[in-house]
């Protein structure tokens, strides 16, 4: 590596600097001025707060915002409307937590794997969690969401560790291609094992079906509180890896030239991803497209800098999940469409549009 290329790489990975000659690409854009990116982030926080309020008010029994405010500030146990609001609080909190976790983990996963199509499935998270839940139902007779969460988290964590271990074998370590191949192979194997169990047990299939769809309805505080410590730890780990991911995005050789221990950096980031994905999947089931679409969408506002991509993904992803959940409550009244289905219906065309625009796929 020449001295000039190393200098350029250091500038690309350092705060407040950029590779010479790139400043003119988007003059006056949000990518050029951190102040504009901060303003967009604040706007996203405001939108998220509005949706959180709407999540408490909208449903089969719609409530005015004034009633929601009274229920939060002057709760009356004898008031039926207040009881409805309080019953929706765990669902809303779970939407915020699971959405933020999936968005943050998806962005970090794309950075670690250097793969624009990376999502929780690429590390076997969804498959591992699903097989563990099926095993818990079939072998141990688990029948409650508070019981599923521990099996799902353990299964997701074990699957992710196995994928990383397999990809690490060989001289080059866990390269992006090996991570993708190991994840795809493990996914196929785990889902095959899961299918064998489900085909042989109708009772297991009936219980598993509710969790498999993915959603935040029907969850209570026991589910939220059980996953909260893991989510918090994973968020802290991943949010601190912005500069690491910027270095990895330049390629392993340049990252090593910048002083990064590539294997250790990927391992630390993968730990945070496992904590986030495992917890979110355990609490809400396998929700598709949130971790895939959101990092691509926020790059329109942030550019390729992961120090901005990560916090943006943390805030914008719950906007998608809560919005999908709210729409799902009212689109087929008096029934509901689970959030996991709505995110796929909303996220799929958005992702196709992003890919056609050609601006969201770059890492």
From TrEMBL:
Which molecular function terms from Gene Ontology are attached? transmembrane transporter activity
Subcellular location(s): the record lists: Cell membrane
**Comp. bias regions, Low complexity:** 1-14
A cellular-component GO term for this protein: plasma membrane
Which keywords does this Swiss-Prot/TrEMBL entry list? Answer: Cell membrane, Membrane, Transmembrane, Transmembrane helix, Transport
Q: What is its main location?
A: membrane
Known Gene3D superfamilies for this protein?
Answer: ABC transporter involved in vitamin B12 uptake, BtuC
Q: Which SUPFAM superfamilies does the annotation name?
A: ABC transporter involved in vitamin B12 uptake, BtuC (SSF81345)
The Gene Ontology biological process terms listed for this entry are: siderophore-iron import into cell
Q: How does it sit in the membrane?
A: Multi-pass membrane protein
Residue spans crossing the bilayer:
39-60, 121-141, 147-167, 179-201, 221-246, 267-294, 306-327, 339-356
Could you tell me which InterPro entries the record lists for this protein?
A: ABC_BtuC-like, ABC_transptr_permease_BtuC
Q: Which Pfam families match?
A: FecCD
Provide the family line.
Belongs to the binding-protein-dependent transport system permease family. FecCD subfamily.
Quote the protein name from its UniProt record.
Answer: Transport system permease protein
Task: Name its species.
Answer: Pseudarthrobacter chlorophenolicus (strain ATCC 700700 / DSM 12829 / CIP 107037 / JCM 12360 / KCTC 9906 / NCIMB 13794 / A6)
Species classification: Bacteria, Bacillati, Actinomycetota, Actinomycetes, Micrococcales
